[in-house]
Write a structure and sequence with these properties.
Clp_R_N, Clp_N_dom_sf, repeat, single chain, mainly alpha, Double Clp-N motif, about 240 residues
Length: about 240
């Protein structure tokens, strides 16, 4: 069984990061090591909470198991959940029902956030990633409403703000998490057993985190109708 690093191992890390023998300097380095360990711990707890949530456990279930209230569980562990990355959630099984293209969209959204040096993946990063692939049902549903997806993408990309934060891991931000929750709600409403880019697009419109689509005349109900029509056309094309 793997063992946690002991004091000697942690001291070795401090010495490697700060080869000087200055005790005050090493105090600062030790604080950095502690912060790194706390970050790993937060991601570990967030991962396990999300795994439980992906298996259908409610906050009440989690609270009961830990001997605390539902509200306390959500307040205590929701913060850890907020530190999770796309890879963390994928490993937890949260994206098992996502199509390959939908998973690639999530990866591109994270790449956009990283390229723009943003601290987290946002709703507009998800939208930009959706618009990257013109062959998806999501983009076809946009085009069916008389909007040019290519022009939409250019305008969105031009308007995204570049930041100045470079971190090893980029979590999914609160807006994007709400969009993913709304995505599952749209999937359930359409009674589909998979999650595609079209559901992510509907999730963006349902959650209303991003105003960009509505500002260009793309609303939830017409998009739902366009998605249904695109799916019906796709199924007809596969009939013998």
């Amino acid at each position: 069984m793997p063992e946690l690093p002991d004091l000697t191992a942690l001291l070795s890390i401090v010495e490697e990061r700060d080869p000087t023998a200055d005790p005050l300097s090493r105090l600062t380095v030790a604080e950095g090591v502690l912060s790194d360990l706390q970050g790993i711990g937060d991601r570990l707890l967030g991962y396990l909470v999300e795994l439980a949530r992906a298996e259908g456990c409610s906050w009440s279930d989690i609270g009961d198991h830990l001997g605390i209230s539902r509200q306390a569980a959500q307040q205590r562990y929701g913060r850890r959940w907020s530190s999770l990355t796309v890879a963390d959630l994928a490993q937890s099984g949260a994206f098992d029902r996502y199509t390959a293209r939908a998973k690639q969209t999530l990866e591109r959204a994270e790449a956009h956030a990283r390229r723009l040096e943003q601290p987290a993946v946002g709703a507009d990063h998800l939208l930009l990633a959706i618009l990257d692939d013109p062959e998806t049902l999501a983009v076809r549903a946009i085009a069916a409403q008389g909007v040019d997806p290519s022009a939409l993408r250019v305008e969105l990309a031009r308007g995204l703000t570049a930041g100045s934060e470079t971190t090893a891991t980029i979590p999914i931000g609160p807006e994007a998490r709400r969009v993913l929750t709304a995505t599952l709600a749209e999937t359930a409403e359409l009674q589909h057993n998979y999650v595609g880019t079209e559901h992510m697009l509907l999730g963006l419109l349902r959650d209303r985190s991003s105003t960009f689509l509505r500002d260009h005349g793309i609303d939830l109900e017409p998009t739902r109708a366009a998605v249904r029509a695109a799916l019906e056309a796709f199924l007809r094309s596969r009939e013998p």
